[in-house]
């Protein structure tokens, strides 16, 4: 028995040494190390208990025996806390081989130990414990080898990028405070309700690691399991951040086809019933059902029309990354595959956006792709996404109503978590070689959503933000947004952007109405106006346009708020350059020298905007500028 113990009591020591040498660091490495330590302790105690039983048996029969010392020193194994940091694949592969060896040898040792204990007429329970440790080891080895195989099959072959798959190595050791791991396991077994809970969790944006976990889970599923899940719940897989873009597109298109067929049948039945009822309360309720279903049909038609903008005029095919019918509706459409693009820009629209009216927003995203692709270096792949994944404020209820008004940040706060989760998914599924550039463009109220989302993912949300027609970001300074660069474009005639400095703002002279760009401006409803020089963003040129319309006497023109994507405009060209990282080609607004506060006068002047200084020359020529070093 002593010889048997000496041969096998250290079966897990090599695994402990590998972990002590940081073969795997961060995330689930700590729990895995502790689990290995516990199994090693269990193995040693099993042999010590077996020996103690035999010693007691010998003494009971009148003999003399001393219990041998069978324990061995514990290798020191520590693991840094925090998120996944990386691993040494070669060391992990050797550790897996050692675990496989232990899984093979320990059950055999358990059988020999059981025979020895039986011959001594004592309990065979210690032998069963030895075999159980072997079963644990083989289970861990099988799971880790499978996950390592997936890790090594990363398209770019870059282990640093493969850190996104770190959760794939954690298995049961992964920190999982929200219980998402158990939900994904249930979903793989065919539980749509579990997937619903995962989608609900991702939309809160509270777990920045969820999309990476989903990505690992999806890649570890066999093809048959994936297809089974897609067939059971296409609309859920189509909404799941961390699932590849092509798969989401296929699932969402399948869902739209099913829903179109179901709507046609439901409407035929309801219309026939309405015709029979003719009048009364029941007919009124039927009409409401018909109206709601017809609205869904219009939403589907709008999505299909938007998707048709892809694959024409040199654009890549459009991918449907999300769709939710009913109510105002939600969707995400990408021109180009974001998983394979070198540059990914996600546009967040503002007030008045609805799924039924998504065509205009999709057209802007397509135009943005055209411009970025036109000025991009050769062989550069671009993906331009329109993301309408939140409930935008509408103007039909008055602009100053509480909670859901355009002057309240409540809807932006509700959408910020969902946007943050969507960007987590883009990072998790990205496959292109090299370092991608992620840009988020917030327009109007969408810039408030963008700013709040960026502040929940400082350093990981995106590489840069572009804010156009922005009333604010809920930040005091650009540096608060946690991205490398912030770019702001604002038309001097855009009235919506002036929400950032209402008359009560400290930055506006209450008598003249003229804004001093150097004064603090924190009294607006969404923080400092991004076009204010004190905000600290890079400002690019947006050409003034002739003022017309009912607000002409004020110097404003509501049409300019949607004019940033006008063909051959300075604003569109500048946005294309920024998306491509061609900062030397961006035409910028110079920072004026600080001037004294204007003297109040009785005759109000048309409002002047900081982003319009200097207004002349009217058509500035783009000049080379060094790459910006700050926010």
CATH class annotation of the largest domain = Alpha Beta
Strand content: 5-15%
Distance between the termini: 70 Å
What is the arithmetic mean of pLDDT? 82
Low-confidence sequence ranges: 156-164, 503-523, 595-631
Largest sheet: 8 strands, mixed
Instruction: Please state the oligomeric state of the protein chains shown.
Output: single chain
What order do the strands of the largest sheet run in, or round the barrel if closed? Answer: 3-4-6-5-7-8-9-10
Number of strands: 10
Count of runs of 4 or more consecutive helical residues: 17
Return the structural class: alpha/beta
How many domain regions? 2
User: Which percent range fits the helix content?
Assistant: 40-55%
- Alpha carbon gyration radius: 32 Å
**What gross morphology would you assign?**
elongated
Question: What's the gist of this structure?
Answer:
With 631 residues, this protein is an alpha/beta fold. The chain has 17 helices and ten strands.
Features:
631 residues; alpha/beta; Rossmann fold; 2 domains; eight-stranded mixed β-sheet; two-stranded antiparallel ribbon; disordered C terminus
Structure notes:
Helix 13 (281-307) packs parallel to helix 14 (358-375). 44% of the residues lie in helices and 8% in strands. The strands form 2 sheets. It has an 8-stranded mixed sheet with strand order 3-4-6-5-7-8-9-10. The termini are far apart. The chain contains 17 helices and 10 strands. It has helices at 2-8, 13-20, 29-60, 89-119, 125-152, 167-170, 180-188, 192-204, 210-220, 223-232, 234-237, 245-277, 281-307, 358-375, 410-429, 445-456, 570-580; strands at 24-25, 86-87, 318-324, 330-335, 343-348, 382-388, 437-443, 464-468, 485-489, 538-540. The model is unreliable at 156-164, 503-523 and 595-631 (pLDDT under 50). Helix 16 (445-456) links the parallel strand 7 and strand 8 (464-468). The protein has 631 residues and is an alpha/beta fold. It folds into 2 domains: 2-169; 312-612, 3-Layer(aba) Sandwich (Rossmann fold), CATH 3.40.50.
